[in-house]
Design brief:
2 copies of one chain form a homodimer. By secondary structure, chain A is mainly alpha-helical. Chain A folds into 2 domains: 52 residues, Orthogonal Bundle (Arc Repressor Mutant, subunit A); 122 residues, Tetracycline Repressor, domain 2 (Orthogonal Bundle), CATH 1.10.357. Chain A has 10 helices and no strands. In chain A, helix 1 runs antiparallel to helix 2 and helix 6 packs across helix 10. Chain A starts with 31 loop residues before the first helix and ends with a helix. Chains A and B meet through helix 1, helix 7, helix 8, helix 9 and helix 10 of A and helix 1, helix 7, helix 8, helix 9 and helix 10 of B. The first copy, chain A, binds a DNA duplex (18 and 18 nucleotides) through helix 3.
DNA sequence: GTCTATATCGTGATAGAC
DNA sequence: GTCTATCACGATATAGAC
């Protein structure tokens, strides 16, 4: 059984490579992979998971559709790679929660807006939120990563009854703002000065997170 | 012209109704049309616009797919008919905003939760929200109807600077709560007692809508 | 490594039999 | 009124030529 390349010579004995790793490992192309990822992020962010097609990603990246499959495999894997945001929130969150809880509302509001005002971090976040309401994989990302890890971290430092509940109320407000301002782009919220939002929202967060 | 039922007696003279309107007015079926609408609401609510198919609606309603087309025409029309909520918000809103702005935060929070706790009103709302982030027609419904008409009505009564902005901040919080509690079903928010939510959220709304 | 060609499926919508 | 049959289209994914 199992042809060894040499064999007896009876057939053409096309030497079928045996040990070749299944997925392209060398990655010679210049920035092809990165271009595809950037295009995927933009597409998922603009259209959400379902309405984004592999063809559309490929066209936006200027490559062939089969290449996307070649690099990432299935569509779900493209999505996962596209929204995988590398910033480590634990670090920055420590600075936000910081030493005491005085002024945590304002620091949190400002941190939240800074993340969303920066296009590099905003794009994958919009992609996740847009897709989370209709696609289960995206919902898992939102629930598991953003909410679980962030909320647990925040709730751990609170000194109020039902800290998890308080943290979720704060999060619900920020998610609502993100949707209306960055996804739905409802005016005048969409064009409002970030500082004017901080000014009004900070006391709310402060109350949820600290006031008994 | 036009046969009178008695006639001359030549035929069996089955008395054909004369004024019969073109589209099934009598609705002979038990509640076929209503069953389709209910199934459509459920499907749109569970899956969002894009992932809901005419075939799926038909199967859930126990009818043929072509019937859905026959009754409603296009998929967009089915959606429009399914989410068209008949409650007149202007009336109830008047009671919420009421005479003075004292306690408007609590009345608004309680009204908001009562609408979402009632399955009859919740289902089409979830359908709209689920679809709004990916489907333009649904976004139009949310933007134009819910936000425009409700927000304008609320903002008109406020006595603060930037009333529209204030009303949107309040709305963003309620939308965020609706998404986390009813769509994503994040715990413990999803199972929390409505009154405990009112208790914490009411002061926030009150401040946004009244405090200078 | 890159792309052409294609297999397979599900979609919305329509025409027409009964 | 209800359903069968079908069209035209776009989707994911794969096989294989160069």
């Amino acid at each position: 059984m199992t042809d060894s390349p040499g064999g007896t010579g009876t057939g053409p004995a096309a030497p079928r490579r045996r040990g070749r790793p299944p997925r392209a490992s060398v990655d010679t192309g210049p920035g092809t992979r990165e271009r595809i990822l950037a295009a995927a992020r933009a597409e998922f962010s603009d259209r959400g998971y379902d309405k984004t097609s592999m063809r559309g990603i490929a066209k936006a990246a200027g490559v062939d559709a089969a290449l996307v499959h070649h690099y990432f495999g299935t569509k779900d894997e493209v999505f996962a790679a596209a929204v995988e945001v590398d910033f480590e929130p634990a670090l920055t969150l420590s600075a936000v929660l910081g030493h005491d809880l005085d002024g945590v509302g304002e620091r949190l509001a400002r941190y939240f807006l800074s993340v969303w005002e920066n296009p590099a971090t905003r794009t994958p976040l919009i992609a996740v939120i847009r897709s989370a309401l209709t696609h289960e994989a995206a919902a898992k990302v939102l629930r598991g990563f953003v909410l679980r890890r962030l909320l647990e971290r925040v709730a751990a430092d609170l000194k109020v009854p039902d800290p998890r509940f308080r943290a979720e109320l704060a999060a619900s407000h920020m998610i609502g703002i993100a949707i209306m301002r960055y996804v739905l782009e409802v005016e005048p919220l969409a064009s409002a000065d970030p500082e004017s939002i901080v000014e009004l929202v900070a006391p709310t967060l402060q109350r949820y997170l600290t006031e008994a």
